[in-house]
Amino acid sequence: MSKVALTVNGKPVEVEVEHRTLLSTVLREALGLTGTHIGCDTSQCGACTVHLDGRVVKSCTVLAVQVQGQSVKTIEGLAPSFDASGARLHPVQQAFSECHALQCGFCTPGMIMAVTGLLQDHPQPDDQQIIHGLEGNLCRCTGYVNIIKAVKQAAQMMQA
Amino acid sequence: MDAKVIKEEQIGRSVPRMEGAAKVTGRAEYIHNIRLPGVLHGKMFRSRIAHGRIVSIDTSAARAVAGVHSVVTGEDIQRLIAEPYYGPAFHDQPVLALHKVRYVGEPVAVVLATDPHVAEYAAGLITAQYEELPAVFNEVEAATSPIHVHDELKPAITFPDLKHLKGKRGTNIALDYKLRRGDVEAQFASAAHVFEHEFHTQHIMHTPFEPFVALAEPMDDSITIHTSTQMPAYVRLEIARLLGWPENKVKVRTAWLGGGFGAKVYVKIEPMVVALALLARRPVKMSLTMEEQFYVIGKHATTFRIKSAVTADGRISARKCEVFWNGGAYADIGPRVSQKSGFTSTGPYRIEHAQIDSAEIYTNLPPAGAFRGFGIPQLVWAYESHTDIIARALNIDPLEFRRRNILREGDEHPTGTAMRDAEFEEVLVRISARMGWDQPFDRGTGTKRRGRGIAIGVKASIAPTTSFALVNVSADGSAVLFCNTIDMGQGSNTSMAQLVAQVLGTSSERVRVTQADTDVTPFDMGTLGSRSMFHMGHAVRLAAEHAREQLEALCAETGIEYQDEHSIAQAFRKKFGMQAGNIFGVGHYTSRYQPADHDTGMSKEITPFWMIGGTGIELEVDTETGHVTILRMVNVVDAGRAVNPRVVDTQISGAALMQMGATLSEEMVFNEGELTNPSLAFYKIPGMRDMPVAIENEALEAETRSGPFGAKGVGESGTFGVSPAIANAIDDAIGVRLYSLPLTPEAIYRGICAARGEPLVD
Question: CB B688 to CB A144 under 8 A?
Fold first, then answer.
């Protein structure tokens, strides 16, 4: 077992983990941040995507002991002041909701974290940049059409 | 409240998804997320052989692992349930293998531990000795094989047309639907043209991203099951039957489903978690991995032999269909798939002489059941490839050939059921108009050849089935809908709320829909086969109408004019002296159905509504590699009146892309019954990079007169035409015809080599 100190959604936390424990497991089990989903176990689906020191990672490919001293942002940290009225969603969240860029919603948190990362690198992405940026995140429901629409709408909202 | 909002028509409004905010913030509840105090996690030990008698199971090493609570085998289950066999069509599937194993991956034992990693480690220490038996994997071989997967057939009582199979021995055939209309052989003997082909489809898996997950929580004299299911009412019935308990001692609840697509219908892992929890007297959770899902349920591989007689003027006069459905080791709902789909094996065409033999066949492979389309995509693959081959051979434009033969309003389908509100021709017209079918087409040059193809399919809905709904109007005029239709992503909660609001004259946003909980949500057959908008839609409409009648009476009694939520609230206050009380509206609906005649397989009423979907494809083939790029995909469906157009549009895209994966890349690859690629790493579902360059959808402006507000189901229609449209376009591009799915670059390249007389060796 090892002690790992990290920052999650802006708050310092310390967890005791086995060496084999994945970051995704720590987020879900130890910290109760269940918005990070586990879909495939083999790092294909991207449902567990989070930001690690501002970069997009699949949290099932990172060992908890690797993130000592680092900063993690999960879907719960994207719009911390979100309330029941839905008034304070992050623009990417708002665009996903408005564009019907989700169906079952299981891939959605990871997809949204990947999109926010993509928009940091490419504030006004074209189709190829969107496809390249999101090819590591799978969706089994929507057929992706509305996800691409949502990325473009979010980019416009963030530009404004 | 703004009177304009209230008066707004709710049907046809693209109301935002009600759970949108919960899903984009990661707050939506999934069974996956539930944690219960004292819970034990179960991990399975599975058979590594395809067929054999169990001689012994050694669980001692697993039991000795620190932290293991217990190890359970089939014999332990039998101490609790004397006849531990379940299934909707046949009571053939043991909770854990008993005496025999019938496929690689079949659950044989479960380790329970407080730590799932400990349970998984210990499960790896279990060993079993088997007396291996010969196995049969291919559906056509299994139809006549001396190797039998089950010694005796055990039909459940649910379906009358399976009764005659009770006690039958020495067969793998679990259903034999037959249609006999006219005299096909006489037509074949005299027709101007006769065409005969054989087509194949592969095993595939739904891969919902939330894999199967269930928790069972034993109470003093009852049990609560938290499960990711499309059929809570059926889970309750089947668990109550297995335990010999009344239904009211079994509570089944769901949360949002992380996808279903037919995988989560009927019961899957629920009997296992229930038995384990009752044996351990503690809550038990089982969360399967993506890998394990492949061993639970998949889509039937099929062999389809199809033969048509065509007149000199290009009319199909007779069609003979022989369909073999590879059902795997346990029937699940497979016999319904082979019968309900079997009805429409001849396709959406006017054919006077028809013969269908559609057989569900046991093999030593993982079970196959319902998968978005309930067997229809496999059939359309064959009959629309066949139809295209005929048109090309007769030098008739494929669109024109289809239009010449297509069923029209009032025509009799080969089963004897008349076509009503079925816009086949309009679907073809809209696809071809969007594609500019009569315009010149760029066919590419050199090693990049372009082609285009179309295809259209039909589905009869599942009948007869029943839905119940309950609308509870509170004293402030807001309403909650209690309904067991499961929103697994298709947007049903939003659409059902729209129906309630339409009837009550309120706004959809003010209606809430509960998650299924069989203690409070009334019976529904289940969320499958695109039946919910029609069946539950009617039940919800009737429940809301019932509530409205009572609300109007309340208003009349209190002297208030019924207008909106405010007037309702006023009436309640006046009647009860404060904001108090409820009005319950109840409704139920059962679809009409006439069972098929035993000898002819015909019926005047095989379906309450027809589903129609077609696809047009433009693509480019790289003749050096066999790679296909879909340049344009046009999907057109008859969805009746769209209750929520944006939800319908997303359903079409999603269905079409899913079927595109089934067409181009997805395949469960078996080696002597052993699955070699059970993970998303080696089983390739479409990613964003695989999308067509352009995709467009259209839901016709149509009306289903028998449907609630003109609506009908649409969840599967987008799948129908995709596979054959792609194959037809490949043929159009490079003159290579493929008869087996998937159409991988290798398969296409082999076809190219074979066509130029240089076939590649295997």
Answer: yes
Shared domain check, A10 and A71 = yes
Is residue B64 over pLDDT 50? yes
Quick one: closest CA in B to A150, which residue? Answer: B24
- Closest to B402 (Cα-Cα) out of B417, B412, B392, B411: B392
pLDDT of residue B576: 97
Task: Answer for the pair B368, B300: CB distance below 8 angstroms, yes or no.
Answer: yes
**Structure tokens belonging to residue B6:** 């209230």
Confidence tier at A86 by pLDDT (50, 70, 90):
low
Cβ separation B26–A36 shorter than 8 A? yes
> Which residue of B lies nearest to A91 if distances are taken between CA atoms?
B24
Closest chain A residue to B693, measured at CA: A127
Where in the sequence is the domain holding A30, given as residue range(s)?
2-76
The residue of chain B with its CA nearest to that of A110 is B26
* Band of residue B2 on the pLDDT scale cut at 50, 70, 90: very low
Instruction: Quote the CA–CA distance of B634 and B414 in Å, as a whole number.
Output: 28
Query: What's chain A's average pLDDT?
Result: 95
Counting every residue written for chain A, the total comes to: 160
Q: How many residues does chain B have?
A: 762
Average of per-residue pLDDT across B126-134: 98
pTM (two decimals): 0.97
Task: Using a CB–CB cutoff of 8 Å, tell me whether B17 touches chain A.
Answer: yes
Task: Provide mean pLDDT across the span B212-228.
Answer: 97
What would the pLDDT profile of B283-292 be if each residue is shown by its tens digit?
A: 999 999 999 9
A55 and A87 inside one domain: no
**Fold observed for domain B3-30+465-590:** Aldehyde Oxidoreductase; domain 4 (3.30.365)
User: Of A35, A104, A146, which is closest to B25 when you measure between CB atoms?
Assistant: A35
For residue A138, the chain B residues in CB contact (below 8 A) are: 209, 680, 685, 687
* CATH code assigned at A7: 3.10.20.30
Residue among B13, B18, B25, B261 with most chain A CBs within 10 A, to mutate: B25
Helix (H) or strand (E) holding B291: helix B290-293
* pLDDT for residue B5: 40
State the nearest Cα–Cα gap between A148 and chain B, in angstroms.
9
Whether B24 sits inside 8 A of A41 (CB atoms) is: no
Residues A18 and A42 in one domain: yes
CATH topology for B298-407+415-462+597-756? Aldehyde Oxidoreductase; domain 4 (3.30.365)
**Alpha-carbon gap, residue B743 to B726, rounded angstroms:** 9
Q: Which among A76, A106, A137 is the end of a domain?
A: A76
Residues A39 and A102 placed together within one structural domain of the fold: no
Whole-Å CA distances, B118 to A153, B41, B124, B285: 46, 9, 10, 14
| Active-site pick, B106, B139, B210, B716 | B716
pLDDT in tens, B624-668: 999 999 999 999 999 999 999 999 999 999 999 999 999 999 999
Fold (topology level) of B38-135+207-293: Aldehyde Oxidoreductase; domain 3 (3.90.1170)
Q: Do domains B3-30+465-590 and B298-407+415-462+597-756 have the same CATH topology?
A: yes
Secondary structure (DSSP) of B187-205: HHHH-SEEEEEEEEE--B-
Tell the burial category of B4 from Cβ atoms under 10 Å away from its Cβ (0-12, 13-18, 19+).
Answer: exposed
Q: What is the CATH number of the domain that holds A138?
A: 1.10.150.120
Say yes or no: A142 and A108 in one domain: yes
Cα separation, B342 vs B359, in Å, equals 8
- Rounded to a whole number, what is the distance in Å from the CA of B503 to chain A's nearest CA? 25
Give the pLDDT of residue B280: 98
Show me where the domains of chain B are located: 3-30+465-590, 38-135+207-293, 298-407+415-462+597-756
The model's confidence at residue A87, banded by pLDDT at 50, 70 and 90, is low
- Chain B residues in contact with A79 by the CB 8 A cut-off are 25
Q: Is the pLDDT of residue B159 over 90?
A: no
Residue B490 to residue A103, Cβ atoms within 8 A:
yes
The band of A57, judged by pLDDT with boundaries at 50, 70 and 90, is: very high
Q: Is B716 marked active-site? A: yes
Residue finishing a domain among A55, A76, A97 = A76
Tell me how far apart the 2 most distant CA atoms of chain B are, in Å: 89
Q: How many structural domains does chain A have?
A: 2
